[in-house]
Write a structure and sequence with these properties.
Blueprint: E1 8-14, H1 22-32, E2 37-43, H2 49-58, E3 63-66, E4 80-81, H3 83-88, E5 93-97, E6 100-104, H4 107-119, E7 127-131, H5 135-146, E8 151-155, H6 159-169, E9 174-178, H7 183-188, E10 192-195, E11 220-223, H8 232-239, E12 243-245, H9 248-263, H10 269-280
Parallel strand pairs: 1-2, 1-3, 4-6, 7-8, 7-10, 8-9, 10-11, 11-12
Antiparallel strand pairs: 3-5, 5-6
This protein binds 2'-monophosphoadenosine-5'-diphosphate (ATR).
2'-monophosphoadenosine-5'-diphosphate binds near residues 133, 161 and 198.
């Protein structure tokens, strides 16, 4: 698609943004659908965030993504923050709606879509264990709770954070912080375990937060790490004949949902995934 005067900007605000794969994925999507948008990454200083958001409105931005370290701070500059972003406590996508900035969070729904697309798993009525209690765990926990998970056990190195997340989720489901020593018990009762910590991430590929002895048939093992695509946890689960779910899909689908909010069109998920895979090679 040619860059003409009709092209509308969208983008990413963060610091740093140099390693983000979003520009490749989003621009591939716009090109695939032949839509007149361009996606740019902006490395913004903290003191300049307010100016940046006001400036984007002046320049006709249809929306933008937000990444570290501004996912919470950006809320101060928005006109509305939707339930998902409030519940998760972070904004990753902002949409221009009737001359207002509306903040949302597509991570949780992106996770659910990926889970459903790639494994067919439906959380309704299921018992789930989440390992970790950071930002990613909040997004996944919120989505699973809203999708009707019967119970969510949260296991974290720092137990107080697990309790805090359980408290947040207790509005929608039976949620409980569990001591790390009781991880095995929680997993034994679960049909889905979601690994949300950085354990097993490149270059520490020999680490796993869940020993293979704790895995069982009838469990779906989901790991949010996408570099490497197959973590030790996923490899060991696969070797034991247990169904797995890779982390890459969540990244694709959270972007696809932002694309859909900005353009009103269905996202070309497969071409986004392909472009992301190429950019990770
Ligand atoms: P993200 O946005 O990716 O979720 P985060 O908010 O920094 O990142 O959360 C990181 C999560 O990984 C936390 O649950 C963290 O545990 P603590 O709350 O105890 O810090 C967990 N984590 C990171 N490194 C870990 C390690 N070496 N062992 C156990 N847990 C770890």
């Amino acid at each position: 698609m040619e860059i003409t005067s009709q092209v509308r900007p969208v983008g990413l605000l963060g610091r740093p943004v140099a390693h983000s794969k979003s520009p490749q994925m989003m621009n591939a999507a716009f090109q695939h659908r032949n839509l007149p948008y361009v996606y740019l990454a902006f490395d913004v200083e903290k003191e300049r965030m307010a100016d940046a958001v006001v400036g984007m409105a002046s320049l006709g931005f249809q929306g933008f993504n937000v990444t570290i370290p501004y996912k919470v701070a950006v809320m101060d500059y928005l006109d509305e923050v939707e339930e998902a972003a409030q519940a998760i406590g972070a904004v990753n996508t902002v949409v221009r709606q009737e001359n207002r900035w509306v903040g949302t969070n597509t991570d949780g729904e992106g996770y659910l879509r990926s889970l459903s697309d790639e494994t067919g798993f439906n959380p309704r009525g299921e018992a789930v264990t989440i390992v970790g209690a950071g930002g990613a765990a909040r997004a996944v926990g919120y989505a699973l709770a809203r999708a009707g998970a019967a119970s969510i056990a949260i296991v974290n190195r720092t137990p107080a954070k697990a309790d805090e997340l359980a408290h947040r989720l207790s509005r929608w489901t039976k949620a409980e912080g569990i001591a790390p020593a009781r991880l095995g018990e929680a997993i034994a009762r679960s049909s889905l375990v979601v690994q949300t910590t950085s354990i097993g991430m490149h270059p520490h590929v020999d680490d796993t937060p869940i020993k293979k002895e704790l895995l069982h048939a009838g469990l779906l093992v989901s790991d949010l790490i996408y570099h490497p695509r197959e973590t030790r946890l996923l490899r060991e689960a696969k070797e034991a004949g247990i169904l797995i779910h890779e982390g890459l899909g969540m990244l694709v689908h959270q972007a696809a949902l932002a694309f859909e909010r900005w353009t009103g069109r269905e996202a070309p998920v497969e071409s986004m995934r392909q472009r992301l895979e190429e950019s990770l090679d």
